[in-house]
Amino acid sequence: MSQSATAPTAMISCLQPIDRTGLEALIEKGKADPTAIKTLKCKTIAEGRFRHLNMIRNLPPYIVDEPPGLLGDDTAPNPSEASLAALGSCLAVGIHANAVAQNLTIQSLELELEADINITAVWGTGDTSPKPVGFDAVRVKVNLIADAPQDQIDALIAHATKWSPVANTFTKPVALDVKAA
């Protein structure tokens, strides 16, 4: 059993299992048509100041705001923090799904993410001298307690990272088309 240096804070027993039959059906569906593409949609509505409602499927609005230091109302994560949450959640889903596929029991799973970003350009209104825009580095610590030796846990994390859609979005060039409607 592998344990992190810090005690888990969210889970105190086994992670609630995912539906293995459902996972197997998704696996088979993906193998049947490996070229399938799904289009995801989000409608972002500016409420005022720097608070935005993001409408996804039929879910309640996902709010994104800025902290007071960036002139926001501090009611929700800012866009960069939301992207870290998306990455952490995607990695956690992949780790959990692959653990189930490998018949591993996870007692707890926590990911700690941090990223470095230069914000002096102030969204293009401030210092626009040449500099990297966006994250310069992202670090993820996976605190995982599971019924497996450390080398198997390390392989599980590496495999989940390799196949994470959000991790791949962070690490490869993606076509981006932004224009007036």
TrEMBL record:
Pfam families: OsmC. Gene3D superfamilies: 3.30.300.20. This is Uncharacterized OsmC-related protein.
